[in-house]
Write a structure and sequence with these properties.
CATH class of the largest domain: Mainly Beta
CATH architecture of the largest domain: 6 Propeller
Oligomer: single chain
Shape: globular
Length: 347
Amino acid sequence: MLAAVPLAAADYPQLLAEFQKTKPNVSAVHVIAESPLLVAVTGSQGSRQDPPAWGEGELLGVFAHRGDQLVPISVLPNDVAPATVKIQRQTADSITLAFGLRGDSIKIFFDPKTYFPKRIVRFAPVQVRHVAVVAGVLTLTGTDGKQDFIARERNGAWRVSTAPTAAVPAAKSSDTDAAVTPMPVSTMGDFEKARPERVKQLREPYVIEERIGPSQRTGDRLWVGKTFRDDRDSEGVGDIGYFDIPTQTWHFLHLPEMADYPATALLVEPDVIWAGRGSSGGLLRYDRKTQRTTVVPLPGAVDKIVRIGRRLYCGMTNGFAIVDMDHANRFEFTPQMDGSYTITPVV
């Protein structure tokens, strides 16, 4: 996130006047960025140096410098909900702004010579749900809640098609439908030992509630990741383990690196186990031979992990990531001027 920066005294009256053309009673302006475009919001920001907030009913403005003058590209009212503002990406003819908590973004296209706005697109992150090779072509499918997306990769180039969101089909039977004894749940003592920092934050009475999350059957073992919620009255301990079908017994790895995170995705390979850790905990890699654990940082929740050749493809709530040799490159679906979408690397 970018913190609000001071505005040069000579520029303040001009910027304030530009905002007052849309909202005459504007009295406070805070600049998010000054170069190459000037991005600012109106409204009180408080005394703390938090990420700048675009309050409900307040304005967000994008301006260009032309000599000593500020040229307005777009001035937008917030008629949705308060949010913090992050400049996600800038090019010569566009700027993309992302809004915290709300989860949506705005992309403003403009003429790089006149700065006249050409199109303003409001869009949401695409959640990639499936990754597969279909007829020899790497294919990703996902949704933003309003549109379904299909991305196909050929010779390093992606083609994205969209369609109105279809009804979600009924869930198919899974490995966990087989008769298993109930999964053991952590005791209060287990929780206090595994997550001492979390215990310090709790004041209300709580219960331990853990459930089977992502699962994968390999031979006579049903591997699972534990999932739970951290809220006012429910807690849990994250972990990876398996149910041994012949002996009808549960076994867990008791990984400290999983304790604070619910498992969101799982891939069990002969030498390595991969697991998604919560909304921002990244991708965990557990070496089954050395029992060494490492984490690949990834912002956003990992919902799917698929091995294709040497690479792992991770479907996420905000696009997807390609992991090669424990290094991750992340990609997002971004709108274009003509209404189509393209795959864009996240720098």
